[in-house]
Amino acid sequence: MKIFVTSAICLALAPAMLASGLPASAQAQTAPQPPSINAGDRRPAATRPFEIAEVARFDTPWAMAFLPDGRMLITEKPGRAFLVTQQGEKIQLANIPQVAASGQNGLLDIALSPRFAEDRQVYLTYVAPGQGGSVLTLATARFVEGQGRAGLEGLRVIWRQTPAGGRGQPGGIIAFAPDGRHLFLTVGDRMEPETAQVPDQARGKVLRLNLDGSTPADNPQASAGGVRGQTWTTGHRNPYGLAFDPAGKLWLTEMGPRGGDELNLIQPGRNYGWGEVSNGDNYSGVPIPRHATRPEFTPPVVYWTPVISPGGMAFYDGPLFPAWRGSALIGGLSSRALIRIVFDANGGADEAERWSLGARIRDVAVAPDGAVWVIEDASQGRLMRLTPAS
Questions:
Q1: Angle CA 348–36–63, to nearest 5
Q2: Residue 170, CA distances (Å) to 128, 189, 219, 288, 369 in order
Q3: Handedness of CA 377, 383, 387, 390 (dihedral sign)
Q4: pTM for the structure as a whole
Q5: Nearest alpha-carbon partner for 342 in 329, 333, 331, 332
Q6: Cα separation of 312 and 298, whole Å?
Q7: pLDDT at 9 over 90
Q8: Which segments of 109-202 does DSSP mark as H helices, in order?
Q9: How far apart are CA 216 and CA 113, in angstroms?
Q10: What is the pLDDT of residue 29?
Q11: Secondary structure tally for the chain: helices H, strands E
């Protein structure tokens, strides 16, 4: 039997969440949400306000994270990772775990611990081989370097997908709460849509964990334990972008099927509807009920039909593009573009600009100096730096 977290249940949970000391972004879950905006018909701007410089190339790069000194950690989906300078010099990291690399699966995200300056810990996600099928895995390890070498030490798995198995669409994006106390993790439906609504399966969920992988006591269903205790939100398909905005709200991008890519404001206990509703249809052409037909599910703030295939997402707060401050930058895969999203004070958002980059953009990051960096999803994927046009 499928169990849904309805709007009524969310309202019932609100008093307990307020008492538990959840962040303000979580407490605002009962605020009314503006109507969804379809930005799918937007077209790229005729000119770009930035120059693009190719810095290096990688074998199917998937994610990047900036160190405080401006160097980067970059993962390759087939199972390698590198320490990279802004001039493109690369050192391959030692002790990367074995991955099950096929299709969308492999080595995925990498993120610095909120206390990286003290503990030198990094977090990484990957799809690991396992009995009963491959398993999305979250691990942490200490980043070490010296004498021209770099690598990971003391790798420790702190979470595994339950149950194992599935095909592509692993998710695997990491975001840390602004206060540095909790970790959020996206888990895709692994191409099994019905599992996104099964509460005891991690597929199709956003999880909220302590930094050691344990379950926070103030999660919506913490007392249930297991996957239910870890679940923050339900009903996601293929979530590849997750980031906090400057106000502390958590936003997620996910790929829809044939239409219906989504930008969602993530609020605890909510159910976003996949695989019961979508603003897209099945690849076979069989229609899927729309969000408007099932008000118990939370609709996206923005959706795209036709799709953009959203990849990584980052909020801009640097000095080089002052007009972008507070905006989200999203990498477009099928749209081969960089998309800028603007937000209002009421939880609304809209696509403000789109620029064609002529490449499938897998991830976006902002360097300490304010330059925007993107990586291309290709077997010879480019690492590119974007700076203001002369």
A1: 70
A2: 11, 7, 23, 22, 32
A3: negative
A4: 0.91
A5: 329
A6: 22
A7: no
A8: 116-119
A9: 17
A10: 42
A11: 4, 25
Taking the CA of residue 272 as centre, how many other CA atoms within 13 Å lie in the half-sphere pointing to its CB? 38
Q: CA-based angle 327:333:337, to the nearest 5? A: 50
Mean pLDDT, all residues of the chain:
92
Phi, psi of 19 (to 5 degrees): -70, -25
Two tokens at 189?
């439906």
Quick one: residue 79, left, alpha or beta (phi over 0 = left, psi -120 to 50 = alpha)? left
Query: Whose CA is closest to 272, among 8, 23, 4, 38?
Result: 4
Question: Residue 334: which of 279, 227, 256 has the closest Cα?
Answer: 256
Contacts of 111 (CB under 8 A, 6+ apart): 65, 122, 123, 124, 174, 175, 176
Q: What is the mean pLDDT of residues 122-133?
A: 96
Q: Tell me which H or E stretch contains 287.
A: none
Residue of 241, 173, 166 lying closest to 198 (CA atoms)? 166
